[in-house]
Amino acid sequence: MDITVILCTYNRCDGLASALESVAVSRLPHSVSWEVLVVDNNSTDRTREVVERFVSRYPGRFRYAFEPHPGKSHALNSAIRHTNARILAFMDDDVQVEPDWLRMLTRIFDDPAYAGAGGRILPESEFTPPAWLETSARYALAPLAMFDLGPAAGRLREPPFGTNMAYRKEVFARYGDFRRDLGPQPGSEIRSEDTEFGMRLLQGGEHLWYEPAAVVHHSISRSRITRQYFLKWWFDKARGDIREHGIPPQTRWYVFGIPLYLIRRLIVWALRWLLAFRPGVRFSAKLNLWMVVGAIKECRDQSRRRPSEAVTTGC
After folding, report:
1. How far is the C-alpha of 8 from the C-alpha of 185, rounded, in Å?
2. 189-212 pLDDT, tens per residue?
3. Which domains, ranges and CATH numbers included, belong to the chain?
4. Model's pTM, two decimal places?
């Protein structure tokens, strides 16, 4: 097998059918063998029924696998073990891929210098950012899984997002699986399992490619276009960053396991939030404040797990 498209899903059978319809009509050369592997991460809805319908409609194109251990990273790692394809492409159950998506995303692998690739993740055409959100910052729409570095293809200097990325399978043997302490799972929405893996490759000297012609369109539910969702997403993102990167080694001072620099940032962003007048600026300050609180939360949790190190090394 040349390419396996991996899609992990949990209790989203309605959106899943739409995602599978879009990838089913992918246009690739006849010489390329490819498949779609759907990993059901312990769903309780009609997920298996939906996938088996596609297995019947497209013989040899779709496969179903069940992963009982809850957590997206468990499902992703299970999928890697369930295929012998040279190239692994990843998509989610709430996107629509364009017909040429898979071909454009994977064509860079003709060049042996590249270990991975990522493409553009765009919102549905009718999406309009809410008035309360400042969108000028590069990652302002990251909570909605948007990834758009512009129309020019080139070398990636940052990891791609998980719903539009591809890697040679061999890199998982060299760099390991997706981290199981990251990625959404019961009781936690901490993510970053995708970007942490991509960063691992970049730090290892691997080359990644940005392909803007590989486009997926992300469905955005109303529940995500709320202040509460953005605050919670950035709170969890900050926790994930601490898990991924730790505290800078030069950090010397801690208070109850919390780095002193985080306490200073907490005060600064709290004041900016309280003193801002423009709604967009005020909410941006609040987002930064919530990120600091998330980082503090993770530091405290880790220091409690290692109480003997809380004063000297923090988290």
Report:
1. 12
2. 888 999 999 999 999 999 999 999
3. 3-224 (3.90.550.10), 227-309 (no CATH)
4. 0.90
